[in-house]
C-alpha cells in the first residue's frame, strides 16, 4: 500500500475516516443497498483524475491485490462494487461533465442526477437512467434502458467514445475508429475489460416533457396488462416513439397496495393517443402527471427508495403477453404474501416493474452500430420484468434471497410453458446468480471473452476484480 499512498497522496481513506464513512453509508454518496454498504474494504481510494485510476490499477495489478471499482453503487447485491478486506476504487471524484450541445463528456463516477442537472438549463439531454442517483458507468456498460430509449435506443449505443484504463494501467480510447472490438465489448460487457473513466455521449434537444406516475387500485391489474400489451404492439410498430411506459406493482408488509405506472412523453403534450388504453382505466387513486423538466421526473422514484435499506434485484424477459404478465403478477403476489409473518408493519416489501422492449427501439438502436447485447428487431416485441425486494433486518436476508430465487424460477417456468420465454437477461437488473453475459448468445460471449483476453491478458478484471458478472475465463 506504500506505493498507492505515494501515487494517490491524500486520496486513500481508512475505516473511521469521514470520507470512507460517507462513501460507504452517506445518504447521497453512499451505496444504495445496505447489502453493499455492510461490506468493509481495508481502504477506499478516491481518485480525482483518470491518471489516478491508471496509477492505482497498475500498482494493484502488479501487487496482485484484489480490488473493486465503484461508479454509482446502485447494484444492490453484496460485493457487486465493494470488496471485503481489499481495496475499493471509488470513482465519485470523477464527475466532470462538459458538453458542446452535440457531444457530452461525462466522468466515470458521475450519476445521472449530475448529468441531467448540468444539461437541463441548456435544453439538451443524453440517453440515460430513469432514476437520477443511478451511476452512469454501470448503466451504460450494462446496456441501459431509458425514458427516451424508444426514440434513441439503448444508452450504450449512444456512446461515441469510451476512455478506458486497462489492467496494465494503460489508458486507451475505444470508438468506431480505434479499438473497435473493445468499443463493442463495452456496450453490454460490463466491468470485464477495464475502468471507464470518461464517456462521450450523443446529445439531443430536450426541454420540457410530460410525465409522472398514476396510481390505481388492485382491481385494475388485469386491465393494466392488457393496456401494456396494446401499447407494446403499437410502439413496436413505430407509433409515437416519444412515449414510454412502465407498469409498477407494489407490495408492503405482504399486501399488494396498488399499481403505480410511470408514463413519459418527450413532447410536453398531455395524454398522447398511444396511451389511450391506459388513460381509459378507472378509477385513478392519485397522479403526479405534469409538464415538467426531465430532471424532476428522474428524481421522483428515488423519493420512495432512499439509500440505506437492504435490497435486491432480479429480472427476466418474455414475449408480449397480457396473460403472462398477469401470471408473473400472481407469482410475485403469492411470494410476497408469504412474508407477512415477518414483514407486517415493517415497511418491507417489494415491487415488480414490467416494461416493453419494442422491435422499433431495437431497430433504432442497432442502426447506430454493433453492441454485445444479442438483441434485434427479429426478436419481436419483448417484455422485461424487474423484481425489487426491500427490507431492513439482516435477520431476513436469507428469506428474501431465497424468495427472489424462487420467484425467478417460477417466472421462467411460466414463460416457458406459455411458449414465450426469451433467454435475454438485463444485466443492470440481474441478481448475482443470474448469468446475463451468457444470455447474449454463444457468439457474443465468445467475442467478449476474446476481447477480454486481448486487452487484459493477465486477467486483472477476471481474477483481481471479483465483483460484477464475470466471463468465466
Net shape: globular
Annotation, overall tally of beta strands: 20
- Summarize model confidence as the mean pLDDT: 96
If helices are DSSP runs of H or I spanning 4 or more residues, what is the number of helices?
18
Q: Would you give an account of this structure?
A:
The strands form 4 sheets. Strands 12, 13, 14, 15, 16, 17, 18, 19 and 20 form a 9-stranded antiparallel β-sheet that branches. The chain has helices at 2-7, 18-25, 34-37, 50-62, 112-119, 136-141, 149-152, 180-186, 221-236, 276-279, 294-300, 322-337, 340-343, 359-366, 397-417, 436-439, 442-455, 460-464; strands at 12-13, 43-45, 67-70, 87-90, 97-99, 103-107, 124-125, 159-165, 171-175, 195-202, 204-205, 208-216, 243-252, 255-265, 286-287, 290-293, 310-319, 349-357, 382-391, 421-422. The protein has 18 helices and 20 strands. The chain has 473 residues and is of the alpha+beta class. A hairpin with a 3-residue loop joins strand 5 (97-99) and strand 6. The mean pLDDT is 96. It starts with a helix and ends in a 9-residue tail after the last helix.
